[in-house]
Amino acid sequence: MRFRTFSKRLLADWMAQTPVLRCSIFMCVSTLAFAVMQVSVRAVSAELPPFQIAFFRNLFGLAFLVPLLVGQGWAQMRTQRLGLHALRGLVNIGAMLMFFTAVATTPLAKVTALSFTAPVFAAALSVLVLGETFRLHRWTAILFGFLGMLIILRPGLAIIEPGAFLVLGSAVLWAVAMIIIKILSRTESSVAIVAWMGVSLCLFSIGPALMVWQTPSPTAWLWLAFIGFTGSVAQVSLSQALKETDPTAVLPFDFLKLIWTALLAAWLFGEIPDIHTWIGAGVIFGSGLYIARRERRAAAQAKA
Prior knowledge:
The protein has helices at residues 2-16, 19-44, 50-72, 82-105, 108-115, 118-128, 136-153, 162-184, 190-211, 218-244, 247-250, 256-269, 275-303. It is mainly alpha-helical. The protein has one domain. The longest helix has 29 residues, at 275-303. The mean pLDDT is 81.
């Protein structure tokens, strides 16, 4: 009885906070969970191949999401766009396999910094695929995003790891997935989008995992379950933050991913990011944030 009373009081105090404060906390939790998931993938990659890690991340991640889906009601999973959900899952699994492979072989801070290019690629694809209005500010921000990428990679001046190209390929595919999500959101509920993503990711990652299958040790099983849990926490926290308030109000917190990742990578693996990674990440992230703010302003003007 005391626990139930305490829980109700805690929930009431939480709901009494402003949406911006709640969503800021959700974003902090999401970025920390994402960083912890990355270092966990790096840790277990010493024993298991990335493709197999990706499969178990999806399997355990879906298992942790099932209680939430049951609470929302299975009826919300009904869809008439199963093919588009499957395409989104296929694109997503390609992005995940490339990203996990990069995480296993490339400095984690650089992986995180380059992953910030996804919104920049998505902005370009929105014009080319969705036919959104050409705006000079959008293309200026996109050019700055690519400038930040060049600052990090320094082609011709530094050796570019293969993993860096994998991260960029992953960012492009994730940008394609963002476009598909935009199309799906016109008719599908957020529950259906999340649920079908989990199902499709599990199905599409089984084949690659079987090709490189190795029996996990007891310790590896714990790592895999933890990766699934932290991945789900990151995803659900991000979704809730974006649901409760305007994305531009909480997007600045997304840069915390780089800070958490850099601190954990330095502590656990002795990886110290260079100044070019920080500067390039700042330029890329700033361009993505600028695009988001300008798109919000344009949408508000269109409604007025």
